[in-house]
Amino acid sequence: MPAPYKSQHAEEDFSALKDPAKRVDLFDPLKYIPLLGKDDWVLSLGGEARERYEYFNNRNFGANTQDRNGYLLQRYMFFGDLHLGHRTRIFSEFKSGQTHFNQSSPRSTDENQFDLHQAFLDFTIDPRSDISVTLRPGRQELAFGASRLVSLRDALNDRLTFDGVRAMATGEGWRIDGIAVRPILTRPEVFDDITDANTNFWGAYAVKAYSATSKGGGDLYYFGLNREGAQLNQLTGREQRHTIGARLFDRVGSWDYDIEGTFQWGSFGSGEIQAWRIAFDGGYELSSLPFRPRLHLQVDLMSGDRHQGDQNIESFNPLFPRALYFGLIGLLGPVNLINTHPSIDFQLTGKLRATTKIDFFWRQSVNDGVYNPAG
User: Fold this and answer.
1) Going by DSSP bridges, is the β-strand pair 199-209/162-171 parallel, antiparallel, or unpaired?
2) pTM for this one?
3) CA gap 259, 274 in Å, rounded
4) CATH (domain of 126)
5) Structural domain count of the chain
6) SS3 breakdown of the chain: % helix, strand, coil, rounded to 5?
7) Nearest 5°: CA angle at 321, between 167 and 222?
8) How far is Cα 75 from Cα 191, in angstroms, rounded to an integer?
9) CA dist list (Å): 364 to 318, 332, 368, 369
């Protein structure tokens, strides 16, 4: 049985280790700990250690002090997952993010000495044998679809979490999530992260599989965002933005595709908001050739502001996306851009994959600026 480790630690499921014959991994004694002699009272312990070296030449296009040696990012996470039967679950996770050898000022997400990352309760009911409903209050990670709008922010040293409530309903081939949350603001010291009281985020995300055996499906979603004192395009005011969108994705034979369209409207101060985004991600695998090369193309279009000086906003707001949106080099954010991103993947061994890629960028509107990942 392959170890079901996942980037989103709260989604890991080690219930198969109930069978002693499947406990073959070194860490299995920590992943499945029965309590009080009950098979459905189980504790799972886990963690993550990540070391990452980064070097940028002319960081932020020369706007920052140049660091000639680069720097080392370290991230450590520890969690406990307690299941008290099928209906009740308690999950908690702690984190530590540090930076070393950094001669320039670290980004706000590089340092977080030690803090609570997640702490939530799950209450589950089964109104029918084929339907499950879970209510999850507490501090938690969120990730939906291709993580273009709501993501773990996994590539950064400090991942993103929210305080609030999430409701999840699942059935045969479908899932609906509803959220009402506020994001957590990262601070560098010990146990000093706080809830962003100026931001409210709510919405619903629905996913439907094409069939029981299909790897594809369709998504529909709505998100609402309210920010007090928001800053955008030299303007400051109250931003209330509504986002709707749809996504189709599938893998058929050697082909795969992921298409998503998004529209936004609302108000910013005394002005109006109208923005949009179109995204395509697809590829073809040449499975008959050595190393099974996969030809891949990503295309993204995000609207920018059309007129300088007026109160209306046409700049797309990516909400809470994966911060390194266009790859591991996090220089540009997904606002006011036309991006084409061809790449080739090679499967060198059963467990080793290599990727080579290049990015091309244009501004969607020459009347709007270039944005970093923080917006």
Assistant:
1) unpaired
2) 0.92
3) 21
4) 2.40.160.100
5) 1
6) 5, 55, 40
7) 45
8) 16
9) 15, 13, 8, 10
